[in-house]
Queue: 2 jobs
Job 1
Amino acid sequence: MNRANDLSNSVIFPKGEKLPEEFSKNFVGQAWLQMLVMPGTEYNCPIGNVTFEPGCRNNWHKHAGGQILLVTGGRGWYQEEGKPAQELHPGDVVKIPANVKHWHGAAKDRWFVHLSVETNVQAGPAEWLEPLADEEYSKLI
Amino acid sequence: MNRANDLSNSVIFPKGEKLPEEFSKNFVGQAWLQMLVMPGTEYNCPIGNVTFEPGCRNNWHKHAGGQILLVTGGRGWYQEEGKPAQELHPGDVVKIPANVKHWHGAAKDRWFVHLSVETNVQAGPAEWLEPLADEEYSKLI
């Protein structure tokens, strides 16, 4: 990997720590999380900076209140169930409706960084599901 | 200004258009706005990318539901009424509680870019107040 692709220090916002077990069990590969706005505050709007190593992606999941992804670095993928995966680049914004089954993560050979904004938190937590099939991820270039 | 300080194309997210009159009347100097998540959607979480030219700042104002600023570029200031102004740099996160009178904007000689996340939108719109006194802004280096 050339240096231009090395986002191992994240982009703009702090990289934070390796995902805690409660989240990492729902990921393939390593990701890091720095919460910027914590859950349970008066803002009702948890915001985190998520840094994925190359090849890292999360399992299929749903957010009861929806989620916004703001891509700040690298190259990655977002897929909704039943639709083609969308390639993501810095400056892309993904609006994930409530209860839509999806996954997101890095391209095979590229770091990937996005801010995650959880919306309508009063609707409840995320529901984590099965991993993306390896053969589906391996088709993505 | 050297090229490293030239953020006239914004940072990562699109620069968008000059502020519409409804907002620009509450700013000193020129700013640009690209909405990334529109108001009035199911997300209840308007997000905008705001790019301030050097010296541009907004008037004192309050948000009925609070606001989060995520600083992506340049150098700027945030001040709450009755407190010293805080210098802002990329990676800084400002959590503005509901109904706290404040202003934000660029340093005199630097572009400044932040994402703005409006929280608890059901609480109502922002209340715009008087400009920051020029002699107060001119003290900030």
Note: Residues 65 and 122 of chain A are 7 Å apart (CA to CA).
Job 2
Amino acid sequence: MDKLASKSPEPGGGSVAALTGALGAALVSMVANLTLGKDKYKEVQPQIEALLKESEKIRGEMLDLLQKDTEVYRALSDVYKMPKNTDEEKAARTAMMQEALKKACQVPFEIALKSLEVARLAERAADLGNVAAVSDAGVAVLLAQACAQSAALNVKINVNSIKDDTYNRKTWASMQDVLTQVAALERSVMATTYKRMG
Amino acid sequence: MDKLASKSPEPGGGSVAALTGALGAALVSMVANLTLGKDKYKEVQPQIEALLKESEKIRGEMLDLLQKDTEVYRALSDVYKMPKNTDEEKAARTAMMQEALKKACQVPFEIALKSLEVARLAERAADLGNVAAVSDAGVAVLLAQACAQSAALNVKINVNSIKDDTYNRKTWASMQDVLTQVAALERSVMATTYKRMG
């Protein structure tokens, strides 16, 4: 967190998005772990076991994406430092820049896709999990939502510099679709959470 | 994060709320640090110095609240384990339970109040900070929003068990007021962020 707060541009918002998503997945795992082996929830044990397996998988994938985000960001920074004295140097720099930007765009886009999975897991945790931990399923969906919207900002930064309108339009439209789905899940899971809390 | 995902009920959603708020404050600090000493932003250097000082202070306070949340939760768990065989034991347990619940309610309430401060800092970072880092100010306000809503869920859990209607009504009304203010800041800071990103 000290490095995050520093003037080093990485880790930045993209990595924080992934961390937020990973924390959401961890909370789903906690709800699952607090439901496993409980007599009151014996009828949903197989579903809870499956839920835990998936939430732990996605937690790992989110942490991999956190790492990957800092890597593509560093690669992009290296391209920015390439020489641009001659026309050849300028052309080489521009070509590599476009490639690096698309890679840097892909990572937050994958983080957003993964946040949708976290939101779906939170829904299952809120529906089936131990009622004593339902607020944690609620927090999980709030984190999935923050993750998706943060990832979108980081997709947008790159899209603004990518000179490929077809790619940009397609990517941003998919991003909007993910945001809509996550927002809908956020609303319904929060309603379930407050309802089950009583 | 492994302990979060485990069946140990603490750390839980309250601590994650505080962590989320601390990450938001850290991002404000990053935006400030990426603005300090930049010629293009020389006119706002005093405001940015003040912003950094405040964001670092709140980051520390959020991390203190994270710790405090696990402590009050543990204290409450200890009260749950108190004996309740005789009427005297029952009365003692109930009295201590009510006290412990109010303490456990106060911490997420303070986290929510602090999230409002993070949202206000994010607003200043988005308005005045380096445009190259404005998306990070956007992520900061998204985290402040997730923090506030997560803290509210944790206030609600306790309010549901506290037998003091006046306290409950007052606390929950204040909580709603904080949520409204944070949500308004989230909307305006996100609008500023997308606008400045172009």
Note: Chain B touches chain A through 46 residues (CB under 8 Å).
